[in-house]
Amino acid sequence: MNTLLVTIFFLVIPIFFLITRRRKSSKRLPPGSLGLPIIGQSLGFLRAMRNNTAEKWLEQRITKYGPVSKLSLFGKPTVFIHGQAANKFVFNNDGKTITSQQPESTRMILGDRNILELSGEDHKRVRNALMVFLKPESLKQYVGKLDGEIRKHLELNWHGKQKITVLPLMKNLTFNIICSLLFGVERGPRRDELIECFQRMIEGLWSVPLNLPFTRFNCSIKASKRVQNMLKELICEKRMQLEQKTALPLQDLITCLLSIRNADNEEELTEKEILHNIIIVMVAGYDTSSVVITFLLRLLANEPAVYAALLQEQEEIARSKSLGELLTWEDLAKMKYTWRVTMEILRTTPPVFGGMRRAMKDIEYGGFLIPQGWQIFWAIPMTHNDDSIFPEPSKFDPSRFENQKSVPPYSFVPFGGGTRICPGYEFARIEILVAIHYVVTQFTWKLCADNKFSRVPMPVPTQGLPIEITPRKQM
């Protein structure tokens, strides 16, 4: 009998302590539910994105659970955080506490060695390599080529038309710019096949990760493999051209990355890193700039005073140019009001809704535990529409950005922040300003659909923003 009691004691006590410890630990987890395995809250969140109610969806979570809550997104347990402190926490991490890691489904499509996935010295090395090409000093020499691409686009797709759909045309424009300036791929069958596969690839970026036949995710995976094979061929060709000295190191982004050497004369970036970062540049440059330009045209059709002021600025620049003369870096510096309008568009309708990080170890945040391996989800609109940061946030007001120093740190984050700020920021600025210059000085337009939009996951206006266009009389 005594032996039995002793045995029970030694069996029960460890179980008791284990249960107690787990209860104690679980109390420290943020409130909320992880929902069903794999699916979690993914379907509800994606539905809210499509209905353009994702911010309200998150606000309801905040009302119910408080400023920090747990859920499951895209197959992983996740902690949602928001606000300036959250943005600072996300962007100023050292790679040892949290790492910039996208959901497994996104990594499977975009690759695991792109700049969004890397941290610490790897992130710094890849970012420095990209900045060799994307820094302002390098980009100055490409303004003229970008100018030519945009003029050609308007000539082929706008002139002679009475009605167009803006978003697909802007995506066509930004992809052609990427192919020409960043990859050195000229117009033709190769570019056409690349854009077709690329579009199928990005459709599954924010989808439930069910890799079953005929699912959006499965189609995206297949398209990603084809895109990567095409880019591998291109990288091989560029390497051969460099070896034969028939290409210049800075003639496009790929040759630039291939040309970077370290002190030991070895490749600074692996071929896998070059490939995966080319893909991430494609995704960023294709979607974000096209969305911003589209919503700029939508805004200008709805805000006559903003349109008049922006048009006046652009007409003054146009009058200073002789017939056929290309825009210059100095002309872009004069587009101050146009860029303030663009910044306000980025505040009200940021192309990227939010992002994911991963906890590298157990973290204390906001009085709760974020367990090692869990995702950390943050959302850009939560500070952009905070009336304590931006008074009357629903009002479109470009004057908010007349003095950048008046905007509180870590509150305006469409391009990220800290060491994680988008390396393509300056390239996007040039692209947007040149495109808007030629559209507003060559055309007038009116909208043919309502002002609603959805997120899939980028903002998409109703019917892609169809407009009626009329050529302006050239000065």
UniProtKB/TrEMBL annotation:
Heme binds at C422. GO terms for biological process: sterol metabolic process. It is found in: Membrane. The keyword Metal-binding applies. Pfam families: p450 (PF00067). It is a single-pass membrane protein. Transmembrane segments: none annotated. GO terms for molecular function: heme binding; iron ion binding; monooxygenase activity; oxidoreductase activity, acting on paired donors, with incorporation or reduction of molecular oxygen. Keywords: Heme, Iron, Membrane, Metal-binding, Monooxygenase, Oxidoreductase, Transmembrane, Transmembrane helix. GO terms for cellular component: membrane. SUPFAM superfamilies: Cytochrome P450 (SSF48264). CDD domains: CYP90-like. Its cofactor is heme. Signal peptide: none annotated. The keyword Membrane applies. Belongs to the cytochrome P450 family. This is Cytochrome P450, family 716, subfamily A, polypeptide 1. The lineage of its organism: Eukaryota, Viridiplantae, Streptophyta, Embryophyta, Tracheophyta.
